């Protein structure tokens, strides 16, 4: 009888161990996928920062052109 119980306990422990192994493998896959997502988000943030930088540079160029145009209008007495 004791051997039967020991065998049953051993079988349950083996099943629990197999489930833990599968769970660890799933966790590893999830962590890898999460890492890929984080890398993708970092690339998006970097691209957005570059786009904003370009926007600021263009805005600065437009402001300089506007100042030049204002000076030309004043020089030619075209200002209202």
Overview features:
80 residues; 92% helix
Approximately how much helix is present in the residues? over 70%
Number of strands: 0
Give the averaged pLDDT, no decimals: 94
Structural class: mainly alpha
End-to-end distance: 108 Å
> With helices defined by DSSP (H or I, 4 residues minimum), what is the helix count?
1
Mass-distribution shape = rod-shaped
Main sheet specs? none
Cα radius of gyration in angstroms: 34 Å
Short description:
The protein is an all-alpha fold.
What's the structural blueprint in terms of helices and strands?
Blueprint: H1 2-75
Word description of this protein:
With 80 residues, this protein is mainly alpha-helical. The chain has one helix at residues 2-75. It is rod-shaped, with a radius of gyration of 34 Å. The mean pLDDT is 94.
